[in-house]
Amino acid sequence: MQQLDMFPEDIRIERVDPETNMYRFYRLRLLPDLFGGVSLLREWGRIGTQGRHMIELFADAGQAADAMHAVYRSKQKRGYQLAA
């Protein structure tokens, strides 16, 4: 079973804490590129804004999915949860 079968290709997580005025989102998406590889698109910012983005290129879907999962785990440790 491939990593992609166990993990989605599009994840949106949020961290909301009204007491500290924190309303943040983080989105991770796997996208095929034109050269047979896979890109990991990372978008983040304050909820309601366009935010910022970064693209990481990987040779195959497995590497990209592993990187996506690592970022997701890291964000979970900081209090982010899946968006409703």
Strand neighbour order, sheet with most strands: 4-3-2-1-5
Given the structure, what is the number of helices? Answer: 2
Q: What's the end-to-end separation, in Å?
A: 28 Å
Total number of domains: 1
In the CATH scheme, the class would be Mainly Beta
Q: Could you say what the CATH architecture is?
A: Single Sheet
- Major beta sheet, specifics? 5 strands, antiparallel
Q: How many strands appear in the DSSP assignment?
A: 5
- The CATH fourth-level homologous superfamily: WGR domain
Q: Could you say which overall geometry the principal axes of the C-alpha atoms support?
A: elongated
Q: What structural category do the secondary elements indicate?
A: alpha+beta
Which value, in Å, is the CA radius of gyration? 14 Å
CATH topology: q64v53_bacfr protein fold
User: Which strand-content bin applies to the residues?
Assistant: 35-45%
Mean pLDDT: 91
Low-confidence parts lasting 5 or more residues at pLDDT below 50? 1-5
Q: Helix fraction?
A: 25-40%
Helix/strand order, N-terminal first? HEEEEHE
